[in-house]
Design a protein that fits this description.
The complex is a heterodimer of chains A (226) and B (313). Chain A is of the alpha+beta class. Chain A contains six helices and nine strands, in the order H-E-H-E-E-H-E-E-H-E-E-H-E-H-E. Chain A has one domain: Alpha-Beta Plaits (2-Layer Sandwich). Chain B has a single domain, classed as Formate dehydrogenase/DMSO reductase fold. With 313 residues, chain B is mainly α. The chains are: A alpha+beta (226), B mainly alpha (313). At the A-B interface, helix 1, helix 3 and helix 4 of A face helix 3, helix 4 and helix 7 of B.
C-alpha cells in the first residue's frame, strides 16, 4: 500500500514536471516577440494634439461604441503655467497593443487574441463569456464590458471596420493636426518607422514587460513632478 | 474613497466568496483524507467530522462555481469556458483542475461510504457492488490524485490573482502559498465546525489530529503574511505604496489587523494551544475556534481582493 502510494506520487510528480516543461518549451515564452508579416503600431504626438476629441468622436461613430464606454479617450491634464501663458497636456488613453499582452495570456477561452497577420490585439466577442479577467489583467485599464454585446471590448486599430476597407483607423483620419501616425513597423519605408527614427518617443509602463506598440512623443513643456 | 467602490476596481465580493469556497472545499477534502488514512481507516464513514467534510466539500465547490457563473456578464455562455481552453490562462487551467477535482472528490466520497452504499444496494442494485469493488481496487490512486487536486485547487485561487500585472499587491509570488495555507485551515475549521454540529465528539481523535496540524499551519500562515507584506515594502515603488494603502488606517486596514490577524489567526492559535495544553475540548471551544478561523479566511479573501485592487502599477 505505502509502496504503491510512493510510486504513484513519484510518477505523477514526474508527469506534472514533464507537462510543464513541454508547455514552456513549445508555447510562446513570455517576452518573445511575435513574427508577423505586418506589425501595426501607432504614434501620438502630444505636441501636435490640441485635445479637440475629434479622434474619440469618430472612433465612437465608426466602431459603433455605445455611450458610457469608450475605446479611445483624450486625457487632459493641467492647466500648467501662469496666465496668460497657460496650456494643457493631452495624452491618449486606448489599447496599447502590447506585444506580450496580459489580456491574451489570462483569457480562459481565447476570446482575447493577437492577430497572427497584423499583430493587432483583438476580441472575439462571441467567444467572450464576460469573466472580466482581461479587464483586471490590463495594466493600462483600457478594457471595458460593451453594454450591448456584454463582451469585453477595446481599441483594435479599427481592424474590423476601417482597415478592412483599406483605410486608416478612424482616429487617424479624423485628427485635424496630424498628431496620429499609424503604420507597419516591419516596413522600413512606412511613415511611422520614419517618425519613430526621427523623434524621441516614450511608451507607458515599459517596466511591466508588456512591449506596448502605442508610441508617444512627449509634450515639451510640463510641470515638475518628482 | 469607499472601501467597496473605487476606480480600477474590477472584481467584486462574489469573486472573494468564490475564492473562499474553492479553498474550503479543497481544504476539507485534504483533512478528510488525512483523518481516514491516519486514524479512522475503514470506520471513517462513522465519524461526524469526515461526514461533515464530505458534505461541505461538494456543496462549497458547487456554490463557488455557481457564484462564478452568475458573476459572468454572459452567464448562459459559461459552457464556452469548458469548450475553449487557453493553457496560458490561470483561470482556464483552474477550470480543468476544478472539473477533474470534482470527479475524484465524488469517487473518494463514494469509497468512504462504500459500506453504507453496498449495504443499501445489495438487494436493490446488485451491479453497484461490482462497480464499488472495482473503484476500491484503485483506492490509492484516487486518494493520491484527490490530495494533489485539492492542494492544486487551494493554490490556484492564489495564482488566479497573482497573474494580474496591473496590481502590484496581487502580483506577488507569496500569494498562492498564503491562499493555499489559509484554504487548508478553512477546510480544517469547516470540518471541525460541521463535525461537532453533527454530533462528533469534541474530544475525539479526529479533533486531536486536526489541532495538531492546525497549530503549525497558523504559525506558517503568519510567516507567509509577514513575508507577503515585507516583500512588497522591499520591492519599493508602487508595491510599497500598495502595502501602505492596505495596512494603513483605512477600512481594510482595520479588517486586516482586527479581523484577520486578531480574530482569524491569533484567537484560534491561542485557543488551539489552550485546548492542547489543558486537554479541555468542549463543544463551545471547538465550534468557537473554528468559527473564528472561518471568519478570518473569509475576511482575508475580501481584504486581498479589494485592497489588492486599490493600488495600480
Amino acid at each position: 500500500m505505502d509502496k504503491s502510494k510512493r510510486q504513484f506520487l513519484q510518477g505523477s510528480g514526474a508527469m506534472i514536471a514533464g507537462i510543464s516543461l513541454y508547455v514552456l518549451t513549445n508555447g510562446e515564452v513570455a517576452g518573445e516577440q511575435q513574427k508577423s508579416a505586418v506589425k501595426y503600431a501607432m504614434l501620438h504626438d502630444e505636441n501636435k494634439c490640441i485635445g479637440c476629441n475629434a479622434c474619440a468622436d469618430n472612433c465612437r461613430k465608426v466602431n459603433q461604441v455605445p455611450e458610457g464606454v469608450a475605446r479611445l479617450e483624450i486625457i487632459r491634464t493641467g492647466p500648467f503655467g501662469e496666465y496668460p501663458n497657460q496650456y494643457y497636456h493631452f495624452t491618449r488613453k486606448s489599447c496599447e497593443q502590447c506585444e506580450d499582452s496580459p489580456c491574451v495570456h489570462v483569457c480562459p477561452t481565447g476570446a482575447a487574441f493577437k492577430d497572427e497577420n497584423t499583430g493587432i490585439v483583438s476580441v472575439n466577442s462571441w467567444k467572450c463569456v464576460g469573466c472580466q479577467y482581461c479587464i483586471a489583467a490590463c495594466p493600462y485599464h483600457i478594457r471595458f464590458i460593451n453594454p450591448v454585446t456584454k463582451a469585453a471590448d477595446k481599441c483594435d486599430f479599427c481592424r474590423e471596420t476601417q482597415l478592412k476597407q483599406g483605410k486608416q483607423p478612424a482616429c487617424v483620419e479624423a485628427c485635424p493636426t496630424k498628431a496620429l501616425v499609424f503604420g507597419d513597423l516591419n516596413d522600413p519605408n512606412s511613415e511611422i518607422v520614419k517618425a519613430l527614427e526621427e523623434n524621441p518617443v516614450y511608451r507607458n509602463k515599459r517596466d511591466l514587460g508588456t512591449h506596448p506598440k502605442l508610441f508617444r512623443i512627449q509634450a515639451k513643456q510640463g510641470g515638475i513632478n518628482v | 474613497m469607499s472601501p467597496f467602490h473605487f476606480e480600477h476596481l474590477v472584481w467584486h465580493w462574489p469573486i472573494a466568496f468564490y475564492l473562499f469556497f474553492a479553498g474550503v472545499s479543497g481544504g476539507a477534502m485534504f483533512f478528510a483524507v488525512l483523518l481516514k488514512n491516519f486514524i479512522l481507516r475503514g470506520d471513517a464513514y462513522k465519524s461526524g467530522f469526515v461526514q461533515a467534510a464530505c458534505i461541505v466539500a461538494p456543496i462549497t465547490v458547487m456554490a463557488g462555481l455557481g457564484i462564478l457563473v452568475t458573476d459572468l456578464t454572459k452567464p448562459l455562455h459559461f459552457w464556452k469556458i469548458m469548450v475553449f481552453y487557453n493553457l496560458t490562462s490561470v483561470m482556464s487551467v483552474g477550470v480543468i483542475i476544478l472539473c477533474i477535482y470534482m470527479v475524484f472528490m465524488f469517487l473518494w466520497i463514494a469509497l468512504v461510504f462504500r459500506p453504507v452504499i453496498d449495504e443499501w444496494c445489495r438487494t436493490r442494485f446488485p451491479w453497484v457492488l461490482k462497480l464499488s469493488a472495482f473503484l476500491s481496487s484503485s483506492e490509492a490512486t484516487i486518494t493520491g490524485l484527490l490530495v494533489i487536486l485539492a492542494l492544486a485547487l487551494g493554490a490556484y485561487t492564489g495564482f488566479l490573482l497573482s497573474a494580474l500585472p496591473g496590481y502590484p499587491m496581487l502580483k506577488n509570488p507569496v500569494l498562492p502559498i498564503l491562499f493555499l495555507l489559509s484554504a487548508l485551515s478553512s477546510g480544517a475549521a469547516a470540518s471541525l465546525l460541521g463535525g461537532v454540529l453533527m454530533k462528533g465528539n469534541p474530544d475525539g481523535r479526529e479533533v486531536h489530529l486536526i489541532h495538531k496540524i492546525e497549530i503549525p499551519l497558523i504559525l506558517v500562515e503568519m510567516v507567509a503574511i509577514f513575508t507577503f507584506f515585507l516583500g512588497l515594502v522591499l520591492t519599493g515603488g508602487q508595491a510599497k505604496v500598495a502595502a501602505a494603502n492596505a495596512l494603513g488606517f483605512g477600512f481594510w486596514g482595520v479588517v486586516f489587523w482586527v479581523g484577520i490577524l486578531l480574530v482569524g489567526l491569533s484567537v484560534p492559535l491561542a485557543m488551539n494551544l489552550f485546548m492542547t495544553a489543558t486537554a479541555k475540548r468542549r463543544f463551545a471551544y471547538v465550534a468557537g475556534t473554528a468559527t473564528c478561523s472561518l471568519i478570518g479566511v473569509i475576511l482575508l479573501r475580501h481584504f486581498i481582493l479589494y485592497a489588492g485592487q486599490m493600488t495600480i502599477a
